[in-house]
Amino acid sequence: MKVNENEWNIGGDEVEVNTSIRFRGDGYFFLHDIQKESGAAFSSLVDHYLKNNTNIQKLTVCVVPEFLKKKDPNCYRLNVKELRLEGPDVYQSILPIIKHNKLEKINFTIRANNLHLLEEPFVKSSESIMLRFPLWDPIPLNNLLLNLKHKNIQIIYFRLPIDEVEKLAVNWKETRRPLGDSFSLGVEEYTYVLDVFDRLQERLGATPSRIEKLGSKYLSHCVTIPICEESELVVFGGPKSLKWPPFEWTLRMEVMPRGSTIAK
Fold this sequence. Notes:
Blueprint: E1 2-3, E2 6-13, E3 18-25, E4 28-34, H1 38-49, E5 55-61, H2 66-69, E6 79-85, H3 90-94, E7 105-109, H4 121-124, E8 128-132, H5 144-147, E9 152-156, H6 162-174, E10 182-187, H7 190-204, E11 207-211, E12 221-226, E13 231-244, E14 247-257, E15 261-263
Parallel strand pairs: 5-6, 6-7, 7-8, 8-9, 9-10
Antiparallel strand pairs: 1-2, 1-5, 2-3, 3-4, 10-14, 11-12, 11-15, 12-13, 13-14
């Protein structure tokens, strides 16, 4: 179980009734063995740290233990801002005890066996979504990216074809996505960002520009596609805030107010 930046790993021997608890926090690691069955140890941990109405910035769920499945949603609910799911079916067990109106971001690895999650109301209604595609043999995209209506979309996809970025830019322009909507893609090298610039200039008539609020910094360089009198689509790149090899950079696309960029 991982809550914000604190992580607990509990593994036990049912016969010997020994449980090993590993705790990893900000610059701190703790390992301890106790004379208690692992399910009971996990239950004690949750009862102590995750009381009813606890506010959680980010909850990572791999497995939902039986005692948690039996919690009464009328008496026990958690206020979770970001939910990261690490299994295809765990959402069915954890959702009843999470307040959906507090959920702002959904984060999961997308595969064929959980593609249906994209149609779930709790996913559709979240403001932000992060989809992680397996490095090898990811599911076919088809129109998946075009159908995402979230305000903030984050994608991890190894060597996403530039054709998909072009299709998305065309779609966002034609559908007049609202101001503030953004898309980000983890990429290996900044050269990918430059290749996207070239493609959008060649195919869509994008204008080489710089983002005014970033001044003359190198990372202010971008390309701009007008949407309407009030907005423009700005495509730019920069270092990834949290590097996850091989993804060192981020390609970003954002709908900004008209005039946010200056043509070079």
